[in-house]
Amino acid sequence: MSVNLQTPIDYLKGVGPNRADLLRKELNIHTYQDLLNLFPNRYIDRTRFYKINELQNNSAEVQIIGKITGFKEVAQKRGKRLVAMFQDDTGSMELVWFRGQKWIRERLKLNTPYVIFGKTNWFGGKFNMPHPDIETIDEHKRGLSSGIQPLYPSTEKLSNKGINNRVLSKIVQQLFLESKGRFVETLSPNILSELKLTSKSDALLNIHFPKSQELLAKAQYRLKFEELFYIQLQLILKNLIHKSKIKGFEFEQVGRYFNTFFNNYLPFELTGAQKRVLKEIRADLGSNAQMNRLLQGDVGSGKTIVAFMSMLMALDNGFQACLMAPTEILSIQHFNGLLEWCNHLNINIKLLTGSTKTSERKIIHKALENGELQILVGTHALLEDKVKFKNLGLAIIDEQHRFGVKQRSKLWKKNTLPPNIMVMTATPIPRTLAMSVYGDLDISVIDELPPGRKSIKTVHRYDSNRLNVFRFIRDEIAKGRQIYIVYPLIQESEALDYKDLMDGYASIERDFPKPEYQISIVHGKMKPADKDYEMQRFIKGETQIMVATTVIEVGVNVPNASVMIIESAERFGLSQLHQLRGRVGRGAEQSYCILMTSHKLSNDSKTRLETMVRTNDGFEVADVDLKLRGPGDIMGTQQSGVLNLRIADIVKDKAILQQARFYAKKVLYADPSLGNAENETILNTYKAMSKYKNIWNYIS
Ligand code: ADP
Ligand code: MG
């Protein structure tokens, strides 16, 4: 009989109520299981012992055998530090504690051999080691650990209270003693043998007490696979259940609206990718399963028309549709774009944003409820409770990553049946991330730009080259082109950034004097009406240069603008740089993006700039961004549940993720209810996880 892993951690020998409390609060460890799943952050090789006279001034982690010959307390600015004189047969050094001094003094004996481990510093002509790990020779020998030592996650509170790495390791060791190291297998025999994975018990033993580098690697591989496998299983299962259980509106026919538009008003030939994606959407909408689709496509790939034609499918079947965008500017732009097409087809379309007047609102609410209004475009205002549809058949959300799952589900509740949902994102999400975060959605990708677009040339220039850049601008303006010059505006240092912007504007006015040159300026501190006026002047071609902050990021569409200059480009993130670059290259002319920076560049900045210069491919940019920033930062906290992985890393473990998804699909497609005998282990594990863990909560 193996030990029950749901036993509260208090029951483990060596963990009293105080420690249990700390473990709960600091590391979220409530049960034996949680402790078992506290995987080390990293490992250090402790096969080697150093002598004090071998120490180098390089802050390496070393272990040394020696004795404490005395203690002293040294007063410092705040409080005091405890210093122990430590020596071996080659020399002496100091051990230093800034916290937990009482506990240390009571516990450590003079002139007794200890194994100490930690980072050394060179200070005041001596080596010292702050807060070393200390064990007696006996303790060291008795440890389950071989030469490879795990380092567990910790917090300041824990180490203050004396729960250091060694103590944690001992607690884990106790768990292995009580359970005799036998743990229930959690993967099926099929998968274990097909992938030659190590058993659960072996994996857990070697993750905590590695016997060799090779066994450690095997353990890590198996546990990473398992973690990713069950997330994928969950996502795919959800998708399958969705398709079989959740009925959506079925758009049976392709009808008048779609055909009239397609035959008479299509403004251009659709690209192959647009056609393919429309087919995918059509297949989804034509089934009675509710659609939940992510539409990815780089800036300018032509998502709008795909969205519009999907809405026509809804209208053709007597349903309403809505399109929600993250900003007012963007929803106005969408509205104006769609309005023209709608007018051809006599479709009733309206715009609803935060600034819509009450009287207009009332009209909209009424027309929505009685079904006269067919398409509603707008911002978050669409989510207000007062907004009720007669029969919303399709909801499209632009720029998905700015909205959360919560908002998605809010749209659901606007009907008896959930509407079909399509989320569009212009920031390409790396495949691995999409798989982990949106694995329950179907994904369509527009991976082809409309024909005739010249790819944008991107260069990096230092501020010292400004005169050349200005000369280039003059030449482009002489050819009739328009120019964007963008300044960073980052909230924390707003005043300073604002000054940069104004200084920049002044210097551009000097170099590009009126009346020959006209300049627009747009920034966040302006009144909306003034902003709009300036933007309109640029859109109409009355001004040749637009000086702006990132306000324009998702704003305007000016095909005649062919140069994007980004000032202090080192301060922008990759996806922002890519989005800004997408503002040019919309017309037939060759377009340019010039990244201006100072000479002082961090390594990350260099990587970002090099990436921008190297490629125009949004997916490639996104991949680099993911590597630089990590998944949590990119997706925000909304989806942190999925990204809060214990051992796997979706950037580094891409291959394992793909394998896990492949196997999760293989298992579920063959046995959707997991009822076959061979999948019993998987079913049991899955059930247990859903019961005890709330990591599934992120799924709406
Ligand atoms: P995004 O995917 O960034 O939303 P848009 O839908 O705004 O892209 O399209 C960008 C520009 O490309 C628009 O001016 C649009 O009219 C044009 N466009 C879209 N599809 C095509 C196509 N198949 N052929 C030519 N131009 C197209
Ligand atoms: Mg768009």
TrEMBL record:
Domain Helicase C-terminal residue range list: 465-632
Protein name from the UniProt record: ATP-dependent DNA helicase RecG
Keyword Endoplasmic reticulum: no
A molecular-function term among this protein's GO annotations: ATP binding
Domain Helicase ATP-binding: 284-446
SUPFAM superfamilies with a match to the protein in the record: Nucleic acid-binding proteins, P-loop containing nucleoside triphosphate hydrolases
Biological process (GO), any one: DNA repair
Free-text function comment from the UniProt entry: Plays a critical role in recombination and DNA repair. Helps process Holliday junction intermediates to mature products by catalyzing branch migration. Has replication fork regression activity, unwinds stalled or blocked replication forks to make a HJ that can be resolved. Has a DNA unwinding activity characteristic of a DNA helicase with 3'-5' polarity.
Keywords: ATP-binding, DNA damage, DNA recombination, DNA repair, DNA-binding, Helicase, Hydrolase, Isomerase, Nucleotide-binding
NCBIfam families registered for this protein in UniProt: PRK10917.1-3, PRK10917.2-2, recG
Enzyme Commission code: 5.6.2.4
Catalytic activity of the protein: Couples ATP hydrolysis with the unwinding of duplex DNA by translocating in the 3'-5' direction; ATP + H2O = ADP + phosphate + H(+)
PROSITE patterns assigned: HELICASE_ATP_BIND_1, HELICASE_CTER
Organism: Jejuia pallidilutea
UniProt similarity note: Belongs to the helicase family. RecG subfamily.
Superkingdom of this protein's organism: Bacteria
